[in-house]
């Protein structure tokens, strides 16, 4: 059984009750981690922290624009002030702008890259500074996607952002390895989240196409991703860094 007792974790994009961030938070809290949850929607992420607190866990929350470097400085200071140190960062916040390249505006492209890729750079930089200052290693877990591994029509900006996360993760892992700071990426396939609900709301036929393309014949559950994140946060993964962990029901094995 994974044990995260004594570990502290910052998880971004954790406001949605059906999201990957909150799923990871639940899993990690159940294994003893003390948590700091952030999201652009401060009121909603506070509700998630309150749920965990009511269940007997330690959880704090704060509004957070992950694209703002000053906001990262403020959040990191709050984490250290409330929890004492940072052992784990989960860079989960993200959006999906799904358009064919011919229809993609420069504004939409920049927004996708800023939220999905630049924010991960800012988060990794802030976490590395804190982990190096306090000593004792750490774990950084960056959410990428199977779309960061394979080409998918209508996903050029999303693929560029998630593919960038994949290779940035490997590079940072090499730079931080001697300090025992582990950096890995998680690549979800099609998972039943709010983002998926929105994407498929007006196109039920697309749901069947996606479902039939998955060898296991179904979409994944957020807890499938939360469990992987909790493992990578734990000391059971102490010799794992620079890895890419695909959780996709066999989609990319074809």
Molecular shape: globular
Work out the radius of gyration. Answer: 17 Å
How much helical structure, as a percent, in the residues?
Answer: 40-55%
Compressed to H and E, one letter per element, the order equals EHEHEHEHEHEHHHE
Please list the strands of the largest sheet in the order they lie side by side: 3-2-1-4-5-6-7
Alpha-beta content class: alpha/beta
Enter the CATH topology name.
Rossmann fold
Number of discrete domains: 1
On the 0-100 scale, what is the average pLDDT?
Answer: 95
- Distance N terminus to C terminus? 32 Å
Query: What's the CATH class, please?
Result: Alpha Beta
Fraction of residues in β-strands: 5-15%
User: Under the CATH scheme, which architecture would be assigned?
Assistant: 3-Layer(aba) Sandwich
Task: Describe the main β-sheet briefly.
Answer: 7 strands, parallel
Give the uncertain stretches in residue-range form: none
Individual helix count: 8
Number of strands: 7
So, the CATH homologous superfamily?
NAD(P)-binding Rossmann-like Domain
GO biological process, one term: fatty acid elongation
Catalytic activity: 2,5-dichlorocyclohexa-2,5-dien-1,4-diol + NAD(+) = 2,5-dichlorohydroquinone + NADH + H(+)
InterPro entries: KR_dom, NAD(P)-bd_dom_sf, Sc_DH/Rdtase_CS, SDR_fam
Domain Ketoreductase: 7-195
